[in-house]
Every structure is written in C-alpha cells, then in structure tokens.
Amino acid sequence: MLDQDSYRLGFGTYSLTDKEGINAITAAINAGYRHLDTARLYGNEEEVGEAIRRANVERSELFVATKIAHFEEPEKTPDYIRSGVQESLDKLGIETIDLLYHHWPRGQDDIKTVLPVFNELVNQDIASQVGVSNYTPNDLDLADDLLDVPLSALQAEMHPLLPQQNLREAVQDRNAHFVAYSPIAQGEVFDVPEITEVAKKHSTNAATVSLAWLLSKDSVIPIPRSKSSEHIRSNLGALDLELDDEDIERIDSLDQQKRYEDPSWMEWE
Predict the structure, then answer these.
(1) Which domains can be identified in the chain, with CATH numbers?
(2) Alpha helix positions (H), the chain
(3) 147-186 burial: b if 16+ Cβ within 10 Å, else e
(4) Which of these, 59, 132, 180, 226, could form a disulfide with 158 (CB 3.0-4.6 Å)?
(5) What is the pTM of this model?
(6) 69-83, 179-193, 218-232, 240-254 — which is least confidently predicted?
(7) Active site positions, annotated
(8) Residue 38: CA atoms inside 13 Å, Cβ hemisphere, count?
C-alpha cells in the first residue's frame, strides 16, 4: 500500500499534541497529506484520531501508521503488546492500523518478543502491514527469521547529512520502504550552502530541496513534521520539484554522517 503515490510524502506528528497538534494534523490532511505517522510514545494518538474525524477526507483514503514498544516503555511481554495495540486503535478511533512499527528495540530480546505478536495481529486484521523502527542490518536479519508476513517498511533518521546508504540497501534487498524521519536534519539543511544554492536555482527553499532529494532515492518516503500551515503546504512542493542529476550529485557529495537521534546504548552497524 505504501507504493501509492499519495503516500510518498508522509506527515510526522512527533510532539504535535493538544489543540495545536489537532489543528496542525487536520491542516496537513486538508492540505493533501494522506500518510500519517504517530506512535504510542508520542502521546498524541487521540489528537491524530480527532484530526482524522475533523478532516474532509474519508478514512479509506488515509494511511495511518503507529508504533509500539519504545525502549522507554515498561518490560515488553506479548500481552503488553496486544493490549497496547488495542489502546492505540481506541485512541485513533480506527478499526485497523495500516502500518504497525516496532519502535526503538532495546536489544534483540525485545525483537524476539514483539515480532511474533505482530504476526498474530496481521493475521487477525488488527494491523495490515508491519514495519520496524531504528533497526540495524543485524536486526533486520533477525526480523527475517521471526516474521511470517512481509516487512513493509523500516523507519529511521535520514536526510542529506545522513544518507544511510548501507541501511537503505538492506531495506531495498527486502523490497521494503525506507521511511525517513528528521528529513530536514532538524532545520540544519538551511545552513548547508550546497542545499541552499540548489534551492535558489529552483526558486524554493532548503526544506523542499531536501525532501525532493529524499524522494529521488528508490523507495524512500520522508515524513516531515511542522506546526506551521505555511510550512505544511510548502513541504508538499517537494512532490513537484524535479532535481536534475547535477543537483542530486551535489547533495550526495556532502558525504556526512550526522545523527540527531543517537542514544548512547545504540550500536548502529
């Protein structure tokens, strides 16, 4: 389902809570976003559900993704996963989660507990597709052994300052999608001359260029987040921005490895 053109640019909802969050998510849906990304730990599934109800879009047109089993949550058990997913459904006000992610594993024991339950949830039509978040290539190998259903997506940080070549290749080998969070490097792309010069060439801004660069990569789906209606709309311009080979090569040449989400216990490779 993520192959649909309408889901190629998602809307991230991290930190979008309360009335301000509902208004931003509703504005995003009404502006044209159809892929919504949230998580149990974001504490805003109710806000996402309310935005879905308020927006002038049928539920069938939306692709709703959420996540469970973040490393800061309590001890993971199969029953915890089952009950937590049901809570997510209730808060979102939907009958099926389109894409259910395992969120930030704290070691492979977490993975061994969570993914077998995900198999059950897909078979019960509680979740349509399965994803993983912040997995390493070794974690993906373990997921291959545990999942009876296809892996639909890996979500991880990716932007022009963290191109994730090795991890993207591992995802492509599995015919899955790479869903890129922090796609504008938490605003730092506005300070990168190579990106701002491409933006000037196309009479746009660095955020739009960065999103278009991500979209130029096979099976990559960026999920920008914004509270601003203006930025919500302008980010959609990435879908229509065609970077030429020179533009892409210029951004590729940055060759940096800058992470903004990097817990001390995490071993990425």
Answers:
(1) 5-186+219-229 (3.20.20.100)
(2) 18-31, 45-54, 78-92, 108-123, 137-146, 165-173, 193-201, 206-215, 229-235, 245-252
(3) beeebbbbbbbbbbbbbbeebbebbeebebbbbbbbbbbe
(4) 180
(5) 0.97
(6) 69-83
(7) 42
(8) 27
Exposure of 38 by Cβ count < 10 A (0-12 exposed, 13-18 middle, 19+ buried)? buried
**Span 119-156, pLDDT tens digits:** 999 999 999 999 999 999 999 999 999 999 999 999 99
The whole-angstrom separation of Cα 154 and Cα 168 is 9
CA–CA gap between residue 72 and residue 74 (Å, rounded): 7
Contacts for 243 with CB less than 8 Å, ≥ 6 apart: 198, 202, 209, 212, 213, 216, 251
CA–CA dist 2, 212 (Å, integer): 17
Instruction: Read off the pLDDT of each residue in 94-117 and give the average, rounded to a whole number.
Output: 96
Coil, strand, or helix at residue 106? coil
DSSP code string of 155-221: EEE-BTTB--HHHHHHHHHTT-EEEEESTTGGGGGGG-HHHHHHHHHTTS-HHHHHHHHHHTSTTEE
Token reading at 133: 């978040």
- Give the three-class secondary structure for 22: helix
